[in-house]
From TrEMBL:
Residues 6-233 form the ABC transporter domain. This is ABC transporter related protein. Keywords: ATP-binding, Nucleotide-binding, Transport. It comes from Ethanoligenens harbinense (strain DSM 18485 / JCM 12961 / CGMCC 1.5033 / YUAN-3). InterPro entries: AAA+_ATPase, ABC_transporter-like_ATP-bd, ABC_transporter-like_CS, P-loop_NTPase. GO terms for molecular function: ATP binding; ATP hydrolysis activity.
Length: 308
């Protein structure tokens, strides 16, 4: 078994008499994009702050590439790049000058390395422009470039897609993929399931300060498929179609645009045959997933996810 890029063991944080997170056990594999998902207030930032040493650990430990954050903090941190909350950027300086200034914090970062990270985050065209002219997505990418300067093996990002439009999220996904392919492990938090599904290999769900589950994105998608499909059937005579479908003991209801049907995928041909047999013209059969990933999340946590 290769060494975990990030391992947390029974991690717990109390603030005053309040337990914010407890029993957090994570095992993040080298080279994967791991999503840390949970509604607002679930404890993601608290966990991340402990991982990067911004907050004291109440109980348990964290190992980064085998080094304990408690007993070997410097060794653990030298391989970590992170953005917690917003990236620290000087708006009135160019992206390049921001990187140059940040590079001085580390020994041995060359202009060639700066050029390399600029290329990695696709900011070549904008890097000489002032940061105040950058879009949110460009600022995030500059922040990531900054976090990558010292070639960390583990990149930790707290809600990097906050406020990004779909194009910005796609860019992030591409960036994480190429980093992971080059062996950088990416640990990224979000409260939006669909984003995690697009960007990650595995997702760990946290709720009320405790881990609910860790699953591959494929497993989550499979769960979302279990339980069947919903169809919207548009026909020449929707009233007749509804009667015909309910006769098959299939759950159906009338909608403005057609008949909504909930069933297992295996029964769809039977529905089509019955409608055709009853001489009802079928114009369209639109399939929708019966259970979205949001539903899976609700199933797993037993509570509605609070978005916002
Ligand atoms: N210093 C603090 N004192 C008391 N409670 C706190 C403190 N910091 C965080 N909390 C509480 O701990 C819980 C977890 O907060 P945290 O910021 O870790 O959640 P989160 O999952 O990152 O959510 P968000 O996406 O909103 O940042 C919240 O209920 C928050 O109010």
């Amino acid at each position: 078994m290769p060494e975990a890029a990030l391992l947390t063991k029974n991690l717990r944080k109390d603030i005053g008499s309040k337990t914010i997170v407890s029993d957090i056990n994570l095992n993040i594999h080298t080279g994967e994009v791991f999503g840390f998902l949970g509604p607002n207030g679930a404890g993601k930032t608290t966990t991340i702050r402990m991982i990067v040493g911004l907050s004291r650990i109440t109980q348990g430990d964290i190992f980064i590439n085998g080094h304990s954050v408690r007993t070997a903090f410097r060794e653990a941190m030298c391989d970590v790049g992170c953005i917690v909350e917003n990236p620290e950027l000087y708006k009135y300086m160019s992206g390049l000058d921001n990187l140059r200034m940040f590079a001085r914090l580390y020994a041995g970062i060359t202009q060639a390395r700066i050029d390399e990270v600029v290329k990695l985050v696709h900011l070549e065209d904008a890097i000489r422009g002032k940061v105040k002219t950058y879009s949110l997505g460009m600022r995030q990418r500059l922040g990531i470039a900054q976090a990558l300067l010292h070639r960390p093996r583990l990149l930790i990002l707290d809600e990097p897609t906050n406020g990004l439009d779909p194009a910005g999220i796609r860019e992030m996904r591409g960036l994480f993929r190429s980093l992971a392919e080059q062996g950088t492990t990416v640990f990224v938090s979000s409260h939006i399931l669909a984003e995690m599904q697009q960007m990650c290999d595995r997702v760990g769900i946290i709720h009320h300060g405790r881990m609910v589950t860790v699953k591959t994105v494929d497993e989550l998608v499979d769960m979302s498929h279990s339980g069947g499909v919903q169809l919207l059937v548009r026909t020449g005579d929707n009233g007749k179609a509804l009667a015909c479908i309910t006769e098959l003991n299939i759950q159906a209801g009338m909608e403005k645009d057609g008949v909504r049907v909930s069933t297992e995928p295996a029964r769809v041909p039977e529905i089509v045959r019955a409608l055709v047999g009853a001489q009802i013209d079928v114009f369209a059969l639109d399939t929708q997933e019966a259970h979205s990933l949001e539903d899976v999340f609700i199933k797993l946590t037993g509570e509605e996810q609070q978005n916002g």
